[in-house]
Write a structure and sequence with these properties.
Number of domains: 2
Largest sheet: 2 strands, antiparallel
GO molecular function: DNA binding; DNA-binding transcription factor activity
Number of strands: 2
Strand order of the largest sheet: 1-2
CATH topology of the largest domain: Four Helix Bundle (Hemerythrin (Met), subunit A)
InterPro entries: GntR_C, TF_FadR/GntR_C, Tscrpt_reg_HTH_GntR, WH-like_DNA-bd_sf, WH_DNA-bd_sf
Shape: globular
Protein name: Putative L-lactate dehydrogenase operon regulatory protein
Keywords: DNA-binding, Transcription, Transcription regulation
Structural class: mainly alpha
Organism: Shimia thalassica
Number of helices: 11
Order of helices and strands: HHHHEEHHHHHHH
C-alpha cells in the first residue's frame, strides 16, 4: 500500500499528507464516515495507507483546521458535520488552480485578515496569545527543518482569527481552507525546490504580525498583515514567471 499511496499522491501532484487528507475528506463528504463516528487509530491508518505516523498526524491536523475532525481528550478523534455553504459561496472553497486565482484569493483575504489582526491586538486573551505563539513556534520549526509548512502557516492565521473573539473571522478562513496556501504544490508544478530564503522571509513577516499583536499595537498588527499578504501576492507572481521560464 505504501508504494500505491506514493504513486497516487505523485500522480495527483500532492505530498503524502495531502493525499491522505484528501482520501479521508472524501470519505467524510461522501458519507462513508458519518458525523460523530470515531476516526480509526493512527496505527490502523498507517497500516492502511502504508505511511508514517507523522504523515497521518499532518493529514489529521489539516482536516481539523478544515473543521472536519475534532479531538476529544481521552476518547480519540471524531468526525464533524461538514459545514454547508450557500451555492453562491462554493467558489471560495475550491482549490486555486492558477497563480491568478491564488492572488485573487489573497486580495480577498487581505480585506478580512487585516481587520482580524487589528481586532486580535485589541481582544486577544492570555490563552489565545499563548496559542498564537505556539503556532508561530511550530511554523518556525518546520521552516528551520526545511519541511513543508503550509498547515502550520494556515494554523497561525486561524489562531489570529480566533483571537478576534468573532467566530465569523474563523468561519471565513475555514471556508477558504488551507489550500489557499499552496506554495509547495505550485513549486512542484513549476519544477522548483523550496526556497529557504523565501520561507525565512515569511517567518519574519509572521514574527512582525505576532509581535504587534502581543504588544497590543492595533495599527502595527494591521500594517504587518497587509505587508505579509501583499508580499505573498508578489511571491506568487515571481513563481508564475519562473514557471514560464522552466
Amino acid at each position: 500500500m505504501a508504494s500505491t499511496s506514493r504513486k497516487q499522491a505523485k500522480e495527483s501532484g500532492l505530498n503524502l499528507s495531502q493525499y491522505v487528507a484528501t482520501q479521508l475528506k472524501a470519505r467524510i463528504l461522501e458519507g462513508d464516515m458519518t458525523p460523530g463516528s470515531k476516526l480509526p487509530t493512527e496505527q490502523k491508518l498507517t497500516q492502511e495507507f502504508g505511511v508514517s505516523r507523522t504523515v497521518i498526524r499532518e493529514a489529521i491536523s489539516g482536516l481539523k483546521q478544515d473543521g472536519l475532525l475534532v479531538s476529544r481528550q481521552g476518547s480519540g478523534v471524531f468526525v464533524l458535520e461538514p459545514k454547508q455553504t450557500d451555492e453562491t459561496l462554493t467558489f471560495l472553497s475550491q482549490n486555486p488552480q492558477t497563480i491568478a486565482g491564488v492572488i485573487e484569493t489573497l486580495e480577498l483575504r487581505s480585506s478580512v485578515e487585516i481587520g482580524a489582526s487589528e481586532f486580535a491586538a485589541l481582544r486577544c486573551s492570555p490563552a489565545q496569545e499563548a496559542k498564537i505563539l505556539d503556532c508561530h513556534q511550530k511554523f518556525k520549526q518546520r521552516v528551520i527543518s526545511g519541511e513543508i509548512s503550509e498547515s502550520e502557516d494556515f494554523a497561525l492565521h486561524v489562531a489570529i482569527a480566533e483571537a478576534t473573539n468573532n467566530q465569523k473571522f474563523v468561519d471565513f478562513l475555514h471556508l477558504l481552507g488551507r489550500d489557499t496556501i499552496p506554495r509547495s504544490e505550485l513549486r512542484k508544478k513549476a519544477n522548483l525546490q523550496t526556497d529557504p530564503e523565501v520561507e525565512l522571509q515569511i517567518l519574519q513577516e509572521h514574527r512582525e504580525i505576532v509581535d504587534a499583536i502581543i504588544r497590543r499595537d492595533r495599527d502595527a498588527a494591521g500594517q504587518a498583515m497587509r505587508a505579509h499578504l501583499a508580499n505573498g501576492a508578489e511571491r506568487y507572481r515571481v513563481l508564475a514567471r519562473l514557471a514560464q521560464l522552466s
